[in-house]
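Chain particulars:
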Amino acid sequence: MIKYALTCDHDHAFEGWFGSSADYDDQQARGLLDCPACGSKAVRKQVMAPAVRGTKKTPKTSGDDLPAAKMQAMMMEAAGRIRRHVEENFDDVGDAFAREARAIHEGKAEDRGIYGQASPQEVRELLEDGVSVAPLPPEPPKKADVH
């Protein structure tokens, strides 16, 4: 997995995790990347310094020194737990998500946790109208798909 620091044309900064740099390039070319804050499709990588470890051993001083692979595994586990919690406790409203979220926000539907699908345009409109929404963490990769 590769973590990229990303930004949109409205200068919203966010992170994206990809299986490889080719996965990022493919998703970008297909228009699948959008800003979680505003939905803009004009997403680009920020300038980043590579994380290069030196050859000298340094003493461990804190939890900040966790190996990248271990940190990644912890983050993926946490994201999986969040996703499972939502799927087990919230109502799946499918492609009616934007309509249902708006109805809940306006008090026209029962106040409850929901999840589903919405287009980038629908997400933009919900955010502009003050409706709080957040992307659901992706499903963890299947063990057979991990190299």
Notes: The helical segments are 21-29, 68-89, 97-105, 120-128.
